[in-house]
Write a structure and sequence with these properties.
This protein is of the alpha/beta class. It is built from 14 helices and 15 strands.
């Protein structure tokens, strides 16, 4: 089987790149097609990969300012035609699913989300100080991009969604069905601490940017007087400091080696934002700690009320306060929490993605309807 990996852009590290790393481990002989590639911004091991760039990589300052070239990506991807592969596996949050391919080729799209600024522009701009002129300029452009994006989605053979929330968006925006395969989480890094070592603090681990809604956790902790540690950095830091009482501690960037102990010893992780999936709640649960999360997005797949944590139902300080005030961290079994987290492990992702590709290709070659059979039994206590 000849398989090609396709990825929107390679100029920064984030969740999409974590998924790509896992895909390369699953399919190590596959070339990677991407629009731009800035090796200086990426881990050294990427340089051993067979990375093939599009012409857009040659545009001025595109590695630093790739957003300014937004209208060019559909054009660049639409001009790429891959004809020598049995399977194309695209890792998509932008426009890379719009490439062309031979009729006999199977195109599987691992969809991190339908292109957010195309389909959810107002949500994307919320909390950003762009001003109304930017909205007026972007509105007509997004209408054109929606038409292109929808047409590109119709050429995809099968969609995989990273969560139930993304599955619903694929159906709503593209009119396509999808199967869910959760992104890979390295659960082996995290282990529960003995109950005697759990300390008296709650924890947030996040980039400090407006849409993460860390302000809800800061204000709720300040009102309740609960000790809260915030691990992370970002442009929203100064605003959050103005909202915080003396019981809120800002730790700044926490190195990866220190994160497992910080998670294992907290009373609970707070996850107040709306995310497509959200890896941090799974990491906390792998460390045996419960999660207090906003009821929406990927948290609906990763948090089980009464077993691995609790939900607050409205994106407001009042709603979070009501749940947090009654929360008892000692009521949760750390071993049961960790067992739940294991279904999201990187090994489970590898088994699932390989099974999906194999099953889909067999059905494609046989000319029969494809129905994915999950090889990993989920643990839902």
């Amino acid at each position: 089987m000849k398989l090609a990996l396709v990825h929107d852009w390679l100029n920064q590290i984030g969740g999409a790149e974590d998924v790509l790393d896992a895909l390369v481990r699953s399919f190590p002989e596959s070339p990677i097609y991407t629009s731009i590639y800035a090796p200086e911004n990426l881990p050294a091991h990427y340089r051993s990969w067979d990375i093939r760039k599009l012409w857009i990589d040659k545009l001025p300052a595109v590695h630093r300012r790739h957003q300014r070239y937004l209208p060019f990506y559909p054009l660049a991807w639409g001009q790429l035609r891959l004809t020598d592969f049995d399977v194309i596996l695209s890792n998509k949050s932008g426009f890379c699913h719009g490439l062309r391919f031979a009729p006999e080729t199977l195109h599987i799209c691992y969809c991190l989300t339908p292109t957010r600024y195309v389909w959810q522009l107002e949500n994307y701009l919320a909390g950003e100080d762009f001003g109304r002129p930017v909205h007026w300029i972007l509105g007509p452009l997004m209408k054109m991009l929606r038409r292109w994006d929808f047409a590109a989605a119709q050429r995809v053979s099968h969609f995989i969604a990273i969560s139930s929330a993304v599955k619903e968006r694929i159906a709503e925006f593209y009119g396509c069905r999808s199967d869910v395969i959760y992104p890979p989480v390295d659960t082996t890094r995290f282990q529960p601490a003995p109950a005697t070592e759990v300390e008296d603090y709650y924890l947030v681990v996040s980039r400090l940017i407006p849409y993460k809604r860390i302000d809800l956790a800061v204000q709720a902790a300040t009102e309740l007087g609960f000790p809260l540690k915030i691990a992370g950095a970002g442009r929203d830091l100064e605003r959050l400091r103005t909202l915080a009482g003396k019981n809120v501690e800002f730790l700044g960037y926490v190195p990866d080696r220190e994160l497992p102990a910080l998670l294992a010893k907290c009373r609970a992780l707070l996850f107040p934002g709306l995310e497509d999936f959200g890896i941090t709640p799974v990491q906390a649960q792998a460390a045996g700690r419960p999660v207090i999360a906003y009821r929406g997005g990927g948290a609906l797949d990763t948090v089980i009320p009464g077993v691995t944590g609790e939900f607050f139902h409205e994106s407001s300080v009042k709603s979070l306060n009501e749940v947090w005030r009654k929360f008892d961290a000692k009521a949760y079994n750390s071993g049961k929490i960790r067992r739940h987290a294991l279904q999201f492990d990187a090994d489970a992702f590898d088994r699932r993605i390989n099974a999906f590709v194999e099953q889909a290709l067999q059905a494609h070659r046989a000319g029969r309807k494809f129905q994915y059979r999950d090889p990993v039994a989920g643990i839902r206590e």
